[in-house]
Amino acid sequence: MKLFADFPENYELIDAGGGRKLERWGTVTTIRPEHQAYFGAVLSKKQWTQLADWEFIPKKEGSLQGNWKKLNPLASEEWLFQSAGLVFNLKITNNKHLGLFPEQQINWEFLSENLNASKRFLNAFAYTGAASLFGRKTEAEVVHCDSVKTMLDWGRQNQSASGLDGIKWVHEDALKFIRREVKRGNKYDMVQLDPPAWGLGAKGEKWKLEELLGTLIGEALQLVSKSGILILNTYSPKVDIPFIQQIAKELGISNKQLTNAELWFKTTSGKELYYGIVTRINQL
């Protein structure tokens, strides 16, 4: 099933193609690599360059690391992006990411509709905390966990800029924290997992999502209270819907509990771009 996300307020995916995507983030427009954009773009390269303020040039194909090329001499390196009453600090770094994943609008809406002051929400692998802010905006109790301290600091800046407070910030490996919470007997009404496809831990431990996904889901489900929901976002080429369905079957998760959908954006120019899989598991 294809699930098309709406653009967040003040964001626009203008065009995509030729392994790149053209995006507007409020007042700043960028060109970034996108391996899912294997088709031709609608707008010309000249039009892209005229519209864009920055273009990311990776060190090598597929790398997150690289350099940003300034196409507009007046372009800002840091700016505030406002959406749905929240404020996010976006900035140019040596990474292609700017501090926000706009396709997550689909989950932000879900959190906004299903959380309230009586609920507890755990956001794990939480990056710069957009989901945490949307959760806290509902007055829910929010725990934000990420293993990278700079991401927690960035999240705190977003919290402050948005006029919020009260988020609990946890600097720890997400899976380790989840296991600790299980041992403590803690429960959450909503748990969101946004794990990377691969990576290295603080002590050099190798993380491969396809090898650890079953363990991660199994552990996280133990934290979800009765009638609660586990949200999982996956972006790995080795993890597709049948793969997730098989893991669910092995964990004893029924079809009634499980929903999977491919996440897509439609560009303003009319192209369709794939952004991974959104999974929701209802705790019965």
Automatic annotation (TrEMBL):
Q: Which Pfam families match?
A: Methyltrans_SAM
According to the lineage, what is the superkingdom? Bacteria
Q: Does this entry carry the keyword S-adenosyl-L-methionine?
A: yes
CDD domains reported in the protein's UniProt record: AdoMet_MTases (cd02440)
The answer to whether the entry has keyword Ubl conjugation is no
Q: GO: which molecular function terms?
A: methyltransferase activity
User: Keywords for this entry?
Assistant: Methyltransferase, S-adenosyl-L-methionine, Transferase
Q: Name one GO biological process term.
A: methylation
Domain S-adenosylmethionine-dependent methyltransferase: start-end pairs: 68-201
In Swiss-Prot or TrEMBL terms, this protein is called SAM-dependent methyltransferase
> Which species does the entry assign this protein to?
Fluviicola chungangensis
Give the organism's phylogenetic lineage. Bacteria, Pseudomonadati, Bacteroidota, Flavobacteriia, Flavobacteriales
